[in-house]
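Example record used in the benchmark description.
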Amino acid sequence: MKFFKRNNSTDERAEMSFLEHLDVLRGHLFKSAVAVAIGAIVMAVYNSFIVKNILMGPTHPEFPTYGLLCKVSRSIGLGDRLCMQNISVKMQSTVVGGQFGVYFNIILIGGFILAFPYVFWQFWKFTKPALTKRELHNTRGVIFWVSLLFFIGVLFGYYVIAPYTIHFFSNFSLDDNIENRWTITSYFNTLIPLILGAGLAFQLPLVMFFLAKIDVVSAKFLRKGRKYAIVIMLVLSAIITPPDMLSQIICTIPLMILYEISILLCVKVEKQKKVEEAEEWS
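Model output (structure tokens):
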């Protein structure tokens, strides 16, 4: 089996063996791992501040999201309907290495988040030689947009999805005699996927862009499935937010905007393909 790489000096393709290809991949993975390790060290140095003020933030009544929602609620004449009050969360560690395991996961995942642009850049460098000049031209700025959408998604997950989720489950009770006392492990195992999941979910426009490039999806297909997509988004929002229609809409709107952006990107791809086909025929 033969693979190809781009020769930087001549801009031509040179053959690579399978083992050489794996060796190049190993180099990119090693550099990515080093970047994550550096990010993990930064997380470890500021671990106390990060845990107390960031990761435990949604459990504090003074968390910015709660105060902002109260101000918005009162300013639009809804009183305290959107206010998230009575945040009371008690936690415990029930296993010997529970807190150490959480600590390790925090610095590792935090290191990955901090190093994400560099990690993606290494992935891009690995795949870039396989692209044509036209494809490279059409994907200019991809590292910036992927990183930007990822961090916006992370912030959305942290400031919107996480507070709604923590508030809902902290106040949910089957009986007054049952007290919510979470383990520290279960809390972080709930919080981290929400934040990372939101970061990945915000990659939807770029995913659809590349799927349209390879003719897997089209603007027509996405328009036709819009009503089903909206239902799915509302169901997901209903699961992670309190049983309040306005709260569900707040979580759904960004996802709907991303879906519409995906349609616009697919339209752009289809127009480019028509131009390319016309040029080939001419």
